[in-house]
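Appendix B, example 12.
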Amino acid sequence: MENLKRSRKHFFVFGSLIALFGIGIFCYPFFKTKVVEYQEEKKVAQFFEISSQEKENIIDKKEKINTTQKEPYIGILEIPLLNLKKGFYKIDDVNNNVNRNIQVIKGSDMPNVVNGTFILAGHSGSGVYSHFKNLYKLSLNDDLYIYYGENKYSYKIVDIYDVEKNGKVKIKRDGNQTYLVLITCRYNTNKQIVIIAELLSKEKY
């Protein structure tokens, strides 16, 4: 009888541990997402707290400042319709990649270049770093904003189209306009979504 009680006790403890392990596995993605979102909010807030002079130093002189991260964002992408505010790094920064962030594509013109094209890419899908997962919800005439240096750049979406996912993206543009381009994969397909937005205005923020 005593052995039976011990067996039941051991079985209960073992079962409880299995249940807790299962709950932990189930809840881990949720808590990881919340942690990433919280960290992102802090980084975005930090960007807007940096003085104008410090921003210029970061962009022009690559000066490091005393922050909680090795390198601060140099700019912020805002998509109001998607409730998205996500920072981006210098092109040559190790953090400038789609594995954890949105990526400034090499060869892009920065937002302050007149008649330039600023290109950002990000993951779609369901992962915690799929920052562009809802890009498919955007439509023509939706608003996009870039905060860079001392200025807020306001854009309006003028074209949306799909291209084959083959490592190359053809960007349709007018050489006399300044553009923001967003690129992501169309989830579970071999297509990529290309969103072209035209600059409407620039103002101090």
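The helical segments are 2-49, 52-61. The first strand starts at residue 75 and ends at 79.
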